[in-house]
Specification:
Distance between the termini of chain B: 34 Å
Helix content of chain B: 25-40%
Shape of chain B: globular
Largest interface: A-B, 22 and 28 residues
Oligomer: heterodimer
Number of helices of chain B: 10
Structural class of chain B: alpha/beta
Order of helices and strands of chain B: EEEHEEHEHHHEHEHEEHEEHEH
Helix content of chain A: over 70%
Strand content of chain A: under 5%
Largest sheet of chain B: 6 strands, mixed
């Protein structure tokens, strides 16, 4: 445990003191600035309009729709930036660092390889979780300041987002045991894209009531549970909403058709454990 | 207790044989040099000893414990041929991290002593990214010495050092030997090995092709006498023939300025071993 914490602390120090952290900070500020402007403009422009046969949608309904859409956008951006950070911290943690000669001096010390890997996981996950939590909180405050509304649930989506970035970090660390930095980076980029496609498929399936499309989307979500956790977070923003806001949550560009379930949350935990176990087993057997 | 015992050690990478059954021991206070061509298995042998690589067959024991075990890794210090420290960390921070991982209680005193030992006293607060390759290599050696290891595995420790730096490391190695530290040293600088090693092991294609004390391996190759009318060579002569040769030349009225006993260098031994392979 002591060795794990030493490596985790080293990983956190590395994150903060590398120049790239400044880049992440600048991009985050840029994202939040744009999001603040977009939120203010969106609420300023809202009005009432006709929603199919349901009749006119009044200012309250439109405000609810705007809130939900902006929250979806904010969470999408937060997870994306946190995913970039988390993957960056772990993408070359084993094969990449071994190739550069950073790993060998550390693993010949009397600490187990399992403890080393766990330390890297804890360090990267802690940084990513802290980052996504702060970003999520700022997004909520920005939307509230602009429109005066809070989402139906706040803590649940935050926990789901933390779970999503933790799984992304675990996947990236697992990939780093078997793939070069470049190959792992490409793999993670494509898997993240596959997750997004799965979310869009779910929305399309829900809109068209196409069960096969929904099943495909569901299966991808099982294979890539970070996407399911993200969808669960967005879905729960407006769990109590009805009418247009409900439709936006299910079908909107930053909505999510799939809600989380106890089974799915348990599966996400098991998935994380499996990824960590396979990574450890692979690392134990790897020649450096 | 023997610092390193390698018994019938083998390592295969697919169809490539990196080590084909190596037996080697390094005793406490002994300085053993490894030489061999690129790909001869020198680095693989060291990596097996420090637990970075698993042997395909055979075993390696470090201070009585199986290589890869925590007890084995507690007893050794290792400097890899290709290594790097995080560029953002200072020299002192690098050593502090390794002290924590090695469980060393030496604290700042140990760090300062090690930095002084490798000539980096003034660079304790300097970031690694601001150091020259030679300075980083010195820091690597300091890192390998953390926790007073009983066995030191050094893979090309002087490759980036200037002549003065190499001399410093030779002095350091001799000091370690006096303190009873066992050292396995891999270097392409054969003259360097000849100067410091108690024993030299020549590896070729994953096998030991020659081993012994440097003076045993390097045979005499004649006598060379510089006279007033040029250099005279006596290829078959040995050390004990020198007085007679000098006496004969002097009696012939030849002026003598210098007498040299010609020895094969380790380089010659190494090249001959490779040719036999």
């Amino acid at each position: 445990m002591r060795e794990t914490l030493i490596i985790a602390r080293h990983a956190v120090q590395e994150t903060i003191r590398r120049r790239v952290f400044v880049v992440v900070l600048v991009l985050t500020i840029l994202f939040l600035a744009l999001f603040t402007v977009a939120s203010a403009k969106a609420f300023a422009a809202e009005g009432s309009f006709q929603f199919g046969s349901n009749g006119p949608v009044g200012p309250a309904g439109v405000a609810s729709l705007t809130t939900v859409t902006l929250l979806g956008l904010g969470v999408f951006g937060s997870l994306f930036l946190a995913a970039v950070l988390g993957v960056f911290l772990t993408v070359g943690a084993v094969a990449g660092d071994a190739e550069r000669g950073l790993l060998q001096p550390l693993v010949v010390r009397p600490l187990g390889r399992r403890q080393f890997l766990l330390g890297r996981l804890v360090g990267a996950a802690a940084v990513s979780i802290a980052y996504v939590t702060v970003l999520y909180a700022v997004v909520l405050v920005i939307v509230h300041q602009a429109g005066g509304q809070w989402p139906d649930f706040i803590v649940g989506p935050a926990v789901a987002l933390m779970g999503a970035v933790t799984i992304l970090v675990a996947m990236s660390l697992l990939g780093s045991v078997f793939l070069s930095t470049m190959a792992n980076g490409i793999a993670m980029f494509m898997l993240y894209g596959a997750g997004l496609v799965s979310g869009l498929l779910a929305s399309i399936g829900a809109a068209l009531n196409a069960h096969t499309v929904q099943t495909i989307s569901h299966d991808i979500t099982i294979a890539l549970p970070f996407e399911g956790l993200y969808e669960a977070a967005v879905h729960s923003f407006a769990s109590n909403a009805a009418g247009l806001a409900r439709v936006a949550v299910n079908l909107g560009p930053f909505g999510a058709a799939q809600a989380g379930s106890t089974f799915f949350y348990l599966w996400a935990v098991v998935y994380f454990g499996l990824a960590a176990m396979i990574a450890t087993a692979g690392f134990e057997r790897r020649d450096l | 207790m023997t610092a390193l015992v390698a018994s019938a050690l083998q390592k295969r990478y697919g169809s490539v044989v990196a080590l084909g059954g190596v037996d080697l021991t390094v005793e406490p206070g002994e300085l053993v040099g490894l030489i061999g061509a690129n790909g001869a298995g020198k680095s693989t042998l060291m990596k097996i000893a420090c637990g970075l690589v698993r042997p395909s067959a055979g075993e390696a024991m470090v201070c009585g414990a199986p290589a890869r075990s925590r007890d084995a890794r507690r007893s050794l210090g290792y400097l890899a041929e290709l290594f790097r420290f995080p560029g953002w960390a200072t020299a002192s921070e690098v050593l502090a991290l390794h002290q924590q991982l090695a469980g060393s209680l030496g604290g700042r005193t140990e760090r300062d002593e090690l930095l002084e030992l490798v000539g980096l006293s003034d660079a304790a607060g300097r970031r690694v990214e601001g150091m020259s390759k030679g300075m980083q290599q010195r820091l690597g050696i300091a890192q390998a010495l953390i926790g007073e290891p009983k066995l030191l595995l050094l893979d090309e420790p002087t490759s980036a050092l200037d002549p003065a730096g190499r001399r410093d490391i030779r002095t350091l190695l001799l000091g370690l030997r006096e303190r009873g530290v066992a050292v396995l040293l891999n270097s392409h600088l054969l003259g360097e090995l000849e100067l410091v090693c108690d024993r030299v092991v020549v590896l070729g294609h994953g096998r030991i092709v020659a081993a012994g004390r440097p003076e045993e391996l390097t045979r005499t190759g004649g006598v060379e006498i510089q006279t007033g009318d040029g250099i005279r060579r006596f290829p078959q002569a040995r050390r004990e023939d020198i007085p007679r040769l000098v006496s004969e030349l002097v009696s012939q009225g030849v002026d003598i300025y210098e007498v040299s006993l010609i020895r094969d260098t380790l380089e010659d031994v190494y090249l001959q071993a490779l040719e036999r392979e």
